[in-house]
Amino acid sequence: MKKWIGVVSHHEREVEELRADPEFAVEYLKGALESLNNPDDRGVSLTMLRALAEAYGGLGAVAAKAGVSRESLYRSLSPKGNPTLKTLVAILNTLGLRLSVVPAPAKARRAKKKKKAKASRKLAA
Question: Angle at Cα 67 formed by Cα 63 and Cα 68, nearest 5°?
Fold first, then answer.
């Protein structure tokens, strides 16, 4: 395969930008955490969290600071990963961030209520 001179992979560039701009990193993390609500986007969200960990010292360093094994962190932040709340909070603390909760947009709450009502009607029938 031919090597291109001066070409940087998307992932490498992404990690560089996250490392260089903390405000961008925070917005990036917010997007990743919002996507965790959608089962179809969870793999992408976990990959985004992994890029953040790589930008802030690498997965080995973040794992050591967070008090989890490197292998566990790799597994948790893989596209099919399923990190525990403890692991997620430890990673965020290591990155100098914290988890917070905000109300869901009204549109999303209404859609969820409709879905629950529809499921209840099916069960009752």
Answer: 60
